[in-house]
Amino acid sequence: YREYYAENIHYLERQDYYNLNHIQILSEFKKLNIGANILDYGCGTATLSFKAKTKRNDLNIFLADIPEAITKNYAKWRFDKYKLDYTWIDIPKNEKLLCKSKFDLIRCHDVFEHSFYPLIVIKFFFDHLKDEGLLSFDYLEIQKVHKETTIESQQYRKEFFDFINLNFKYIYSFKNKYVVKKK
User: Fold this and answer.
1) Whole-prediction pTM
2) How far is CA 175 from the centre of its chain?
3) Rounded to 5 degrees, what are φ and ψ at 2?
């Protein structure tokens, strides 16, 4: 999938349009503390984080995606153009992020079905969420694995949800989207 995202211009072109279907961060999470840390994992063009930052400059935005993705330069350009601070984190091939920050909110949509190591990622999220921190995610079940999805993502899906059920409290779910709070 990394090569697909590095070479496929349609991936960049569809990002902002696709994010129109997602709830805006500040509409969904109205009670974020001043100076809240938000990790947008698998951010793509970072549309929703960008919109949140333009409305609330006090938010500390952390953007993470694979360095090969053509969306990386676009997301960074967008934030830089408007002089909005952010921290960029490259997602390495082993998916072990090098980051010590703790987060009030982690947003991870349209990502887990592409992951080779979903259990590593969810354990990182758990370890780096503040007490009572929120995780907003989806994790599609894919019947036919192809260019953008991985076999591993589907193999570890049950273990992933077992981990969620053990370590998080469900706030709500809707159409394969989940918002959970760290226990």
Assistant:
1) 0.91
2) 17
3) -60, -40
Amino acid present at 121: V
57-94 tens-digit pLDDT = 999 999 999 999 888 999 999 999 999 999 999 999 99
At 18 the pLDDT is: 63
Structure tokens at 102: 């703790």
In order of 112, 113, 155, the CA distances from 152 in angstroms are 10, 9, 5
Distance between CA atoms of residues 116 and 29, nearest Å: 29
Structure tokens at 129: 């969420």
Strand partners, 38: 61, 105
41, with CB counted inside 10 A (0-12, 13-18, 19+), is buried
- Reply yes or no on whether the pLDDT at 17 is more than 80: no
